[in-house]
Amino acid sequence: MKCMKSLNKSFPAMRRERQALSQEACIEILKKEPRGVMALYDVNGYPYTVVLNHYYADGRLYFHGAKQGCKMEILKQNPKVCFCVMDQGTPKPNHWSLNFQSVVVFGEVKFITDPQETKDWIYRFGKRYYPVDQAFWDSIKNCENSLQMFYLEIHHMTGKLVNES
Which domain CATH number covers 60? Predict the structure, then answer.
């Protein structure tokens, strides 16, 4: 089974099928790698990309950001996004090239509006990214009012091993 989860037929099959990763491998990359790039599409027709920390759980990708700003404005107008994560790769011995794995996810963003759920996700992010940083823990005590948690409902996902030669 290739790493593909699709709600409709609008997503094309991967061209280099031999390089496709299993769904399990895609999920492991999403769990292991700390950040990726989210691509959004603004109302003026321009793409907009932003690097985000993420948290994979229960078949979804979770994110956070300030409630105000360009990213949130675009997401409210058009919640359909693409998110790409890649590992650090490994160099081929005695060669200039790099082998790496990547995952591309298409889906729709949903905002978390429940204050307790927001707080729970802030703490999950904290445990993942700042487990021993007391300054972080002190700073998030009252940030629920300024911080927006959201998740990506996955519609389609592919993974690929890029084997440069």
Answer: 2.30.110.10
